[in-house]
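ARCHIVE CARD
Drawer: 12
Card no.: 0347
Subject: one protein chain, sequence and derived structure
Cross-reference: see card 0346
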Amino acid sequence: MTTSQAMISVADISVAYGDTLAIEGFSLDVPPSSLVALVGPSGCGKTTALRAIAGFERPLRGTIAIRDRIVVDDDTDMAPEKRRVG
């Protein structure tokens, strides 16, 4: 799925807390009008992924786009309140 077809597009993000890598190489495309659930064991990165999409965690690398608008990449880090996701 291309960014223009996805409501939310997460491409190859990695997030760390200090020296601990919480997510490495996470990607996800959410089509418009769809319902998605992240499932997995405790500590696998579900909440960290959602926090990165919402703007509460800054990925070390990767790209996040919401409604065809890049909100995170190497040069961009849009504030959480401007992303309009919940």
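Annotation on reverse: Residues 61 and 74 are 7 Å apart (CA to CA). The chain is about 15% helix and 35% strand.
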